[in-house]
Structures
1.
Amino acid sequence: MAGKSQASSGSSRRGFLGAGLTGVATVAGGFVPVFAWTQPAFANRATNDRPRIGCIGTGSMGTGDARDHARFGDIVAVCDVDNRNAERCRNDEGSGKCRADAYRDYRRVLDRPDVDVVSIVTPDHWHVKIALEALQAGKHVFCQKPLSLTLEENRLARSAAERHPDLQFFIGTQQRSDRDLFLRAVNMVHQGLLGDVKQVTVGINGSPTGGPFEVAAPPKELDWEMWLGQAPLVDYREKRCHYEFRWWYEYSGGKFTDWGAHHVDIAQWALKEDTRGRGPVRIDGTDAKHPVPFKDGFPTVDDCYNTSHDFAVTCTFPGGTEMVVTSRGDNGILFEGTKGRIFVNREKITGKPIEEGWDKDRFTEADVVKLYKGKPFEDHKANFYRCIREGGLPVSDVFSHVMAMNTCHLTAIAARLGRAITWDPAAERITGDEQAAALAARTPRAGYEIPRG
């Protein structure tokens, strides 16, 4: 595998990606370039100056992300354990443009010294392993949400980001780049316009139910053993694979980590519970049902979807604020404060504070720049490529995302066990419950270990 020095060779492209800018304005205590990092800004660069990108995981979401990345750089490699996905992305005029090299093994992408950026859009249980190996190879990383499968993977990802401060490690939580909806809601809470927020309801829907599903032969284009990766080796069932992986705890966390990675993230950002040492102290999973029987936190059948379809898990923070993560009611986030309440999702933001414009003159460009960590507001991936060029934390950074994912994984663990568990946010460990604590990590299958240093 290519080492960092190899991946950081002194080409003109690397110089462009790492050089400073002239012509800047000071905003909110930082330097903000006066131009936006739009598609034309990159398109007008010489080929040797444009980032070269490898896309790992090229199903429907992966190909969509690849098209977005292609606005800012050149897709030179695509990879998927299903050859059909790799070839489709390679031949897609919006991404591979019939010029990218196609691979089945992601390590061949990481071996390439000409790849500057990797986009990881695989099933969740592959995210952290590939991301950490990409950082070791000197690549900037875009990884789709949710970043991790377990609490332990959260810590490994954060440690890796700390070891590679010169590389961007960006998460695809695009709601952080929705100015009129989610940024407005976060700003309203930060400004204290709702008063003291003591209740938040996070609606994330429930997982689908289904099964039993029959064993079948894997498609000839799919490397099923490689797809399973660190997960236990099991027979192929069509509904375990591709998008349906989300509804199996072996590969994901159901809605807890699917929509939870978005809405819990926004809720904790608004509550300022998204920094290290913060988080809930009690997570009550007594009100949660699963579509199959469970014993000791594990499903007792292997031919049906097993993630929770009906739940209301209550997370209590040290100051007494309660956040209920639920499958019931509308998808979105309800903030209830002593002065007012608002509801926000991807379609609307409502409530008396919105109708009466309580944030008039309190949601300025400077407020948005502050939320964007000193960068100007722009498209989600534009922020990623700006940060590659300029440095600094992106709007969807690993450190805040890990805090949201801690809560998401804790809700899943409490639901799987059907009881309340306690969490020490400072030590980042489950306390007083050995069985629950054991679910904080998973031993990977031999040959698929995650880097630990």
2.
Amino acid sequence: MTPSLPGPSASLSGIRIVPDMPICQQDLPLDWYQKEFQPYAEEYLALPDRLPETVLPWMDRYIHPALDHFGPSIMLLAHYYMGGEIVKLVERYGGRIGDSYELALQTRERPEVTVFVESAVHFMAEAIAILAGEHQDVWITNPRSGCTMEMMAKEHMVEPVFEDLRARYGDDLLVVAYMNTSGRVKALAGKTGGSVCTSSNAKSVVSWALGEGKRIFFVPDRHLGEVVAGWVGIGADERFIWGEEPGTRPSLADLSARERERLDGAKMILWGSYCGVHTVFTPEHVEYWRSRGYRVLVHPECPTSVVALADGAGSTKFLWNEIREAKRGDRLAIGTEGHFVRNAAEQAELRGVEIVNLADIPDPGFGEMGCGCATMSRNDPPHLVAILDLLRRGSPPDLNRVLPGDVVNETTGSRDRLTEEGRTEIVRDARMSLERMIEVVSRSG
């Protein structure tokens, strides 16, 4: 099953059936489904195969009645990076595919929608919930779908450092929180008059922060932060990475006198986490494909050494637009999440464009191949079917409803939900940082 290129102008008319192409990346074990979802998962696992002509009629029996029931008041959402063919399925059922910025704006752009069902990761659904109106509810197909980068920047890790820095620098500190953070971390940005950013607008947001004359605390990730710092003219000697190794988050008291001196001289303090998917790429990968006539395009979550050698770098939307505009005979090597590249390669092949994953080099000496985001792949057909059918029946699990400030354990599925008072504070501060991003982007064009 191959859809048209997903994105803002995606069209359902491009879907076709490919008999030998499986729909799912893999099946999750039954105990990975919530108890309310297990009957649907059992039906799915009992299907004789994973081919479209088998899976789609099974999904249609549940999804079409749910969509008919809600009509224009429901909207399905998915991120470009989703695995298990969910991007194609969500598009098939009339949903919207986009990057994290586009998804976050949907409650504003579609005020008539009262039910948003998101097949992506929890921080994306929470960003939508923060900006939602009182009449709008946000649901996630699998609450255990998380982000490894966000898991290395939880509130309990970041807040003590934030308090240390705020005590040292006072109102001179401004937090820029990457979209790949929880609402509780985004709220820290709001407390300092700071902003959220995405990979598509990080340069504009950091430029704005510099114009405010503030010391920037960029949370996370260190690679995007370093790349953007270079783009806006913040030199390596003006950056300080807080916690070079994952899991090592020193307090201010742990820093040596020399480190504190470097900290005080930094214009930009970078939280030391990263995206495991993007750190597999190396300069050697870039050189291999460029020497063979490929144009190399990468995501700015890649290490700076990779971005510096590439022919272009930008967000998922940037990469997808470059792929859409490629001419017949063009050859592109893409350095980003594997599901994205695979979907792009399928579509580009229909137009005579060759696309390869930057890390997929047919030489055992290179070792690692390009990988997909495993946590995003926790959304699959049974999850989508179950939440939509249970919403139609009026009995969706409360665990799947996303409220600002919710924190879900990606392993156990347990949730920490704030009191109404605590949630009001998170909404106030996190929304302020998201609104700031929207304002900066609108001004920069």
